[in-house]
Amino acid sequence: MGQLSSSLNNTDQRIAKSFILTHKMTALGHAAQNATQRILNDDIILDNILPDLNLEDIVSVRQVSNQLRRCSNEPAVWKRVLTHTERQLPPVPPTERYSLANISQIEAERLLTRSLSLPKRWDQHRPQHFRRWEIEAQRKVLEMALLPGGHYLVATVADRNPMRYCIEVYTSDFNYSMGFPVARLTTPSKAFHLRAKYLSIHGRPGIAIAYIRRNYRRESFKDEFDINRLAPDSDWFSAKVKYECAVMHVPLQSLELLFDNDKPWDPKEYRTRALQQDRPFQVLTEITSRARMSNPIIDEDRNGIPLVAVLKHPDRIVYKNLDGGLGCTMYCAPHPSYQNFAHAIMAFTFVPSQHQFLLVRRAGEDPDPLQVAADLADLPPGEILTGPYYFAELYDVKYTIDGASLTCDAASRTAVHDAGWNFWHKVWITQPGMGAALKNDVSVRAELQPTSPTKPLPITIFVQADRSYGLVFSTFFPEPIPASSTSNADADPSTRYIYILSEDDPFIETEPLPEGMESLNDLYEHRILLGSTRPVIYTVPRQGSKARSFQVRMLGGVWDEGLLDKPPATVEAQAVGSQDVPANDAAHDEEVNDHDEEPEEDVDEGNEDNEEDADEGSEDNEEDGQSDVLEESSRIRVSHQFNLELADLDHVSAVAWDETIGRLCIGYANSTRIAVFDFAGAPIPARLWYDSFCFLLPGMSADTVHIFVFAP
Fold first, then answer.
1. Alpha carbon 378 to chain centroid distance?
2. Where are the alpha helices (DSSP H) in 137-288?
3. In what ranges is there compositional bias, type Acidic residues (predicted)?
4. How do the residues of the chain divide into helix, strand and coil, expressed in percent and rounded to 5?
5. What dihedral angle (degrees, nearest 10) is formed by the CA atoms of 390, 391, 396, 400?
């Protein structure tokens, strides 16, 4: 066998592959004898055997012997699989460290295993996380934003005594198994509506962070009230406060110089590098307004120009070029059929591929809920209620020379929905982008991206109405536009995709609860963790819940064949058999999740256990507030309660979700910890020689990189 030629033909490759896979069964039974046995020369395995195997086979054959385990850990093996995979890979930071030439073996393997295990786990009727671990935030977490791919986390935090508010950046994949804060910026007041995204500013890739904060219009107002005690969407003391939208940029180069997961830890070198870095937070712009602002959006347009846009209530959008260019305040013209009604923007998002804003607007007043209830009680029987009126619109993004205001008409809109006094309380819109920078991205994800335009993700609008139980949602799917038939040889022959709104298509319709069942809405509030393909819904009891301390009673994923872009036949089979998860699926997931040095937690996911869990979840639907949250059908369903401990869902202050890797993060009001639940399998290297105890080095100011080293 050792003299076997390195130029095997296809038949020989298939025979060798079958031999290795068959040999695995006997090798596992005689591990002590075969652990050091050489099956073939390393060159033959690397050049002729492993290239013919897929991801599942590589994970399987590494258990045959130490030789195959060592060969399967070669970076070239996993880079080859990366270049040939057709799976949707999770995003990575858009830097050279994650390019195809520089990406490490374990990082490449983590990308592939997550892309394989997450869809399988998401299809289960009661998803089970692979691993639970914690991040010590060292401060109380108020709000979180996850960077897609799992490498960084941004949070708004607060010290208890004295009360001080900060924005902190955490590494959430340091050595692939732990996280801690690495950069901190003190804010003048509490930050809310936090957003974070990979973005390139002046050609430098980094983390763009946007948030809203309040300030006093006059110094004398400080003695009258505390702006930090106001709820984010509250209009109290509106005549005495002003709003500020701040946008900052943290270059990834500064963070990556401090951490190298593939080299041994050196505290002295770490501290030296940190002290040599510039301040991590670079202020890009600040937008100030006396009107309430919310919903900041940071993105790149179709030309790769970074921008920020923020909603200035009730009916304006302020946007600005973050590279130092033009800006504009856009006023949206009233709907032609409802010009005599007051208009308000409920929510909006940016569509980069079309250079447009997608808005959900209301025509009509939004009275106090208590007054509405009183008016409904006094209505005579049989009277028909009308208004307010809701609709969606697309607006072209335009710039003015001097940044002045601009009144714009809608490019297109949907039909109008007459809510019949079923007032919409909250509206969420997903963003069509995946989170990676569109320009100056030199990571493996950009290198493997097809040159032709890819199909954008769907945009989903979720609505919470006062008199409807649960959430209602509608999805806009991109429609293909064939290449124009032109004789120009230089014309782009590829198919483009656009989102189309038409007044012939009905908009979201929210039906009120039947008479006598209105009290259901007094029990639970339903909220959404946005995701273009895998959103998560959770319920919070209204009684006893506070803005930053509440209990989660139900938390499950929204499974939609349209969002997942699954073939109809496959979807129907999965939906019908969703409660019966085959045991071999669970075993396969655990096999893919296995790594050389440290296996993941054992998870028992046999058929019987899953059936029992599903039955228990069905019985508890009413108690959890899940019943009728979303209509279940062969196309759409909500998974039963994620398999989390009750203690992990109590005294919650913040929840965040990364759909690209299936990571759920929960912050708590009574502690400084962040619980992390990974629903996608990923290999973890051996524990390093140091303990996970961290401390702050002296001599570091509050707005520079804070160094946390691990002491033996």
1. 45
2. 252-258, 267-276
3. 591-631
4. 25, 30, 45
5. -20
Q: What does 453-516 look like in DSSP terms, one character per residue?
A: PPPPPPEEEEEEETTSSS-EEEEE--EEEPPP--S-TTS--SPEEE----TTS-----PPPPTT
48 within some domain: no
Structure tokens at 300: 């790149």
Q: Which domain holds residue 157?
A: 131-375+385-481+496-563+636-678
The H or E element that residue 619 is part of is: helix 607-619
The answer to whether position 275 is within a domain reads: yes
How far is Cα 148 from Cα 151, in angstroms, rounded to an integer?
A: 8
User: Is the pLDDT reported for residue 624 higher than 90?
Assistant: no
Lowest-confidence region among 19-23, 414-418, 630-634: 630-634
Q: Identify which has the larger pLDDT, 151 or 619.
A: 151
- Residue 584 in any domain: the answer is no
According to DSSP, the β-strands at 405-408 and 327-332 are parallel
User: Phi-psi category of 448—alpha, beta or left, where left has phi over 0 and alpha has psi -120 to 50?
Assistant: alpha
Which of 163, 250, 360, 263 has its CA nearest to residue 685?
263
Cα torsion at 367, 522, 361, 559 (round to 10°)? 180
Q: Kindly write down the DSSP assignment for every residue of 129-181, as one continuous string.
A: -SEEEEEE-SSEEEEEEEPTTSSEEEEEEEETTTTEEEEEEEEEEETTTEEEE
Q: Residue 32: pLDDT above 90?
A: no
Structure tokens at 348: 């909006």
Q: What pLDDT, in 10s, does the model give residues 469-522?
A: 888 989 999 988 876 544 444 545 567 889 999 999 889 988 877 766 766 777
Counting the structural domains of the chain, the total is 1
Per residue, what are the HEC states of 414-452? Answer: CCCEECCCCCEEEEEECCCCCCCCCCCCCCHHHHCCCCC
| Model pTM score | 0.82
Q: Is the pLDDT of residue 178 over 60?
A: yes
Instruction: Confirm if 393 and 413 have CB atoms less than 8 A apart.
Output: yes
Give the DSSP letter of residue 548. Answer: T
The answer, yes or no, to whether residue 618 has pLDDT greater than 70, is: no
**Cβ neighbourhood burial of 597 (10 Å; 0-12, 13-18, 19+):** exposed
User: Among 311, 305, 470, which Cα is nearest to 399's?
Assistant: 305
What is the phi-psi region of residue 497: left when phi exceeds 0, alpha when psi lies from -120 to 50, beta otherwise? beta
What's the CATH number where 389 sits?
2.130.10.10
In a domain, 242, yes or no: yes
Contacts of residue 703, Cβ cutoff 8 Å, sequence gap at least 6? 184, 185, 186, 279, 281
Is it the case that residue 272 has pLDDT exceeding 60?
yes
Question: Hey, what are 128's tokens?
Answer: 């089970």
CA-based nearest residue to 424, from 337, 508, 539: 508
> What band does 10 get if pLDDT is binned at 50, 70 and 90?
low
What tokens does 119 get? 């869809």
